[in-house]
## 1
Amino acid sequence: SMKTAALLVCLVGSALAIPKAGFVTLFLTNPPFPILLLDACRNFHCKRGKVCHVDEQEQPRCICQDPAACPSTKDYEHVCGTDNKTYEGLCQLFGTKCQLDGTKMGRQLHLDYMGSCKFIPHCTDYEVDQFPLRMRDWLKNILMQYYERDVDTSGFLTEKQRNKVKKIYENEKRLSAGDHPVELLLYDFEKNYHMYVYPVHWQFYQLDQHPVDRVLSHSELAPLRASLVPMEHCITRFFQECDGDQDKRVSLKEWCHCFGIKREDIDENLLF
Ligand SMILES: *[C@@H]1O[C@H](CO)[C@@H](O)[C@H](O)[C@H]1NC(C)=O
C-alpha cells in the first residue's frame, strides 16, 4: 500500500540516523508510532552532531547523536580531534562534541585533521615563513594537474574554472612543478604574480562550503591538513598568524593577505 511504501522510504532514509535497536522495539510494540516518528523527522534538518528525534508532543527535535550508534567506519575515515584523540569518523567526533555542549571541552573540540592522530613536528619560524611560498606554488600546480586531467575526462573543473586555469596553463613563463628552492619561488612570485591570484581564490572557494559564507572556520580548514599539503605541520601556526583579528575564522581578505595577494586583487567575483 501507499502507507507501507512511504514507511519503507522513511526507513531507508533514516536508517543511519536512528539507533536500530530502539527503532525495532518501537516498531514491534507500537505500530502506528514509528510512522509519525519518521514522518515528523522527514525533511527536518539537524546540524552536524545531531539527529532528529520526535518528542512526547510528537514534534521533531534535534538531539545529540550517540557516538556509539554511529555507522561503523573504515580505517581511512578516522579523524583526529583538536583534543589529539582519534575518532572513528566524523559522526563520532561531532556526536561527542554535541554531548559536551556547553562545556569548555565541547567548545574546544574541533576536527583537527583527517586520519588518526599522529606526531606532528614543531614548525619552526623559518618553515612558517616559507609556508605561503610553498603552498601558493602547490595550489597552482594542483590546478594545472586538474586541468590536464580534465582534457580527457572532464569533471574536476567547471567551464568557468577551466577558462581561468587555461590562461595560466598556456603561459609559457609558468614555473613547472618541482621541488624548487625558496629563492626561485620568491622570484617567480614577483615575476609571475598574476598566475597566483586565481589559485589562491580557488582554494578559498573550495574550502568555504560548510557553509558558504566567505569565512573559513576551523573545520573548513581541516581538509587542508590532509596529507597532500607540503609542510602540513605548519598549517596550524600559519593560520593562527593569518587570522589577523583573532576571531578564529579566516576571511577572504585575511586568506589573500597571507598568500601575498595585493589588496586590489582580492576579488569575491573570483570565487567560483
Ligand atoms: C598526539 O597523539 C599522537 C598519537 O597518539 C602522539 O604521537 C603525539 O605525540 C600526540 N601529540 C601531542 C601534542 O600530544
## 2
Amino acid sequence: MKQILEPYDITREREMMLPLDYNRRSQLKHYDKTYKAEITNIIRLTEMEKLFQVRIIDDTERERFTFLPGQFVMVEVPGYGEIPISISSSFTHKGFIELCIRKVGLVTTVLHNAKRGCKVGIRGPFGTHFPMEQMRGNNILLIAGGLGLAPLRAPIFHVIENRSYYKDVYILYGTKESNLLLFTYQYEEWDRIADINLRVIAEQGSKDWKGEIGLITDLLDEVDVDPGETNAIVCGPPVMFKFVCQRLTDMGIPMHRMFVSLERRMHCGMGKCCRCNIGSTYTCVDGPVFDYWTVMNLQEAI
Ligand SMILES: Cc1cc2nc3c(=O)[nH]c(=O)nc-3n(C[C@H](O)[C@H](O)[C@H](O)COP(=O)(O)OP(=O)(O)OC[C@H]3O[C@@H](n4cnc5c(N)ncnc54)[C@H](O)[C@@H]3O)c2cc1C
Ligand code: FES
C-alpha cells in the first residue's frame, strides 16, 4: 500500500516553526522514506559546482513531494553514501527539484561524474525554512556569499513568484573570484523582469570582469531601506554572515529579523543520530535556518 504523505504549503509556516516536540517528532516519521529518483539534467556552473535536476520516479510520490524555501534533502548515492543538500529550486515546480552541488569529497565527486539517467535516493525534505510568509509586507535583503546562493535561490524564486507581497527587494551576492559566480545566466531576469535590486561583487576579477570589486559588506552601503520594515536572509560561510549580520545590526535591523542557514556534518537528518548538535540544539531539525538572535545565543554556532 502506498504511504500517503501530507503536502506542505506555505500557509503552514507557523506550524513548521513550532519547537521540536512530540508532534514534530511524529511528523518526522514520514521522512524515513527514501524516494527513488533519477538525474534528468546536469548543468555545469563553474569548475567546482554543477546544478542537478532530480526527478522522483513514482508519479504519485512526485506529485505529493513538496518543501519550503531553506529546507534540504538527503541525497543517497547507492554504494557511496548519503549527503545533505539544500533544495535550490522553487517549490512550485512540481516535476523536479534542483540541487547545486560543489565537488569536495567522495559522494559529491561521484555525483559530479554521474550522467543523465543515473539513479539516486532522496529523503526529506528536512529542517526549518525561511519564514517567507512572516516577511510579507516588508523589504527583503537576500544576501549570499559563494555557494550560499544555492540555498538562497529557493527564497529568491518565492519572492519573484510573489513579488507584490514584498516592498523593496535586494539580492546582494559576492564571491572571492568573479569566475566563481553561480547562476550568472539568471541575473538579468532577477534584476529587470522581477523588479529586484541585484548587486554582484567579487574580491578579485578575471580579465573580462566589468563588475564591482570588493567585499559583500561594501554592497550594504548602497542599500536604502527603513530598518524597522526590513528582513534579511543571509547564506554563506559563517565568517561572512558574522560580518554581514554585524553590519545589518549597525543599520538598525533587529537580529530576530535576520535569518541564516547553519551547516554541520549530518547523518540521519531527522534528530536521531546526534551528529549535528550544538549543545541540545539539533541543526537538522531545529535548523538549518535560525534567526540570528538564536545563533548568537548558541555557543560555538559560528
Ligand atoms: C543542511 C545542509 C545543506 C547543504 N547544502 C549544500 C548544497 O546545497 N550544496 C553543496 O554543495 N553542499 C551542501 N552542503 C554540504 C554537503 O553536505 C557536503 O559538502 C557533503 O556532505 C560532502 O560530502 P562528500 O562525501 O563529497 O565529502 P566528504 O568526503 O565527506 O568530505 C570532504 C570534505 O568536505 C568537508 N565536509 C563534509 N561535509 C561537510 C559539511 N556538512 N559542512 C562543511 N564541510 C563538510 C569534510 O570535512 C572534508 O574536508 C550542505 C550541508 C548541510 C548540512
Ligand atoms: S543529523 Fe542526525 S541528529 Fe542531526
## 3
Amino acid sequence: MPTANDLLADLRAAGLTVVEEPGWKTRGGNWAEGGKPTGVCQHHTAPPNPYPIKALYRNNQIKCNMATHEDGTLYLVAYEACNYSTGRGSSVVLNENVRAEDPPRANAITRRLTDDMGGNRYFWNYENSHPGDGSPLPSIQLQTIVVSNVVVNAHFGLNWKRIISHAEWSRRKIDPRWNGGNRTAIEQIRELVGEGEDVSAGPNGEPNWNEVSSWAQNSWTWAWTNSLITEDSHPKAQQTVEQQMVFLNRYDGRGPHPIRSGSGGGGPGSGE
Ligand SMILES: [Zn+2]
C-alpha cells in the first residue's frame, strides 16, 4: 500500500513547495471503499485570504486533505478521510460520474439532483484559499493544484475523470468559483490534470520523457505568461519556477519518473 511518506516524496520530487501540518500523516478516518479515496473534490475556502490553515482542522473538524495558498504553497493537512468537508451530496454523481469516470457537465443544482448521501469518506479534498467571487486564481496556485493533483491521482490509482467540484457534488454549494465562475474553475483543473496524465504515459506504458518535460515546461511558462501575479506580490513564485527547473534537469531523459513509477503500487493501472 502507498504511504503518506511516499506521497510526500513524490510531491517534493515534482518541485512543489510543501508544508506538513503537524500530525497530517495519521489525521482522518477510514475511507469508504478500498482503503483509499474514490475521487477528488475541489473547493474554495472563501475569506479570509490567505486562509488560516489551522482552522481547516480545528476541534477535530477535518475540512480537507490538502490546502493551497495564493503563493503556490501546498499544505498537507490529513492523509486519511475528512469528516467535515464534502458533506451531503448526490449518489448520482458518485455512481454515474466519479465511479463511471464520466465527469459532470453541470452543477448539482442545475441537474436538479438531490443531496441523498454523505460524501466525506469518498473524496480526497482540496481547500484552495480564494474568496470564491469569480476573480482570477493566481496562476502559481493553479499550477500547485494541477501538479499536486497529478501526483495524488498517480498515488491512489485515480485519474482526472474522478475530479469533481463541490458545486457538482451538492446542490447546496457553489465552490470552487474563480477565473470567471465555477464551471470554468473545475473544467480548467480537469483539462490540465488530464494533459499531465496523458503525456506522462508512453506507448508501452513507460514515461515519455520529452512530452513530460514539454508539458511541465509549458505549464510553468504558462503560469508566467498568463500570470496575474508579479514577483513583488508573490516573491515565492520565482522560487517555484527554479524548483521546477531542478525537477526537469534531474529527471529529463532519466527514468524512472517519480510521479508515474510511484512506489508501493499506487501508479496508473493499479487499484481499479
Ligand atoms: Zn466546498
## 4
Amino acid sequence: MKTFRAYSSAVFVALAMILIFCSTHVNVVDAAQASKPSDTPAGNAETGKRVFNKIGCYQCHGREGQGSTMTGPRIAPDPVPFEVLASYVRKPSGEMPPYTAKVVSDQELADIYAFLQSRPHPPAAKAIPLLK
Ligand code: HEC
C-alpha cells in the first residue's frame, strides 16, 4: 500500500504542476495580447509635444526624446509599448519622478506617445559625409 500512496502523491504533484503551468501560461497569453500595438490609444502629436515640454519630460529625455547619459534614456523614436510607458510614468521604479493623473491625463499620455512615435529616425552613419 505504501507504493500506491507514493504513486498517488506523485500524480497529485504532477497534476498541481500542470495546473500551475496552465494558469501562468494563460497570463502570459493575456499579457501578450494586452501589448498589441492596436491597443495604443489615438493621440495628437502636436498636443503631445506641448505637454511633453510643459510638464518637463524634456528636461531629462531631451526635446526630441533623444535622451542623455546623465539624465534619462532615449525614449523616441520607437518608444516602448504604450502600456509600458503609461504604467512607468505613473509608477516609476528608478530615478524618474512619478506623474499622477492630476498632472498628466491618460489622453495627454496618448498625445505624448503620438509625439514620441512621430520623431524622425536619424540618418544612417554611412549617409553623413563627415563620418566617411
Ligand atoms: C527628472 C528626470 C526625468 C523626468 C522629468 C522624466 N523622466 Fe522618464 N526617465 C528618467 C530616467 C532616469 C529613466 C530611467 C529609469 C529610471 O531611472 O527611472 C526614465 C525612464 C522613462 C521611461 C522608460 C524607458 C524604458 O526604456 O523603459 C519612459 C517611457 C519615460 N521615462 C517617459 C517619461 C515621460 C513621458 C516623462 C514626462 C511625463 C518623463 N519620462 C519625465 C528620468 C526622467
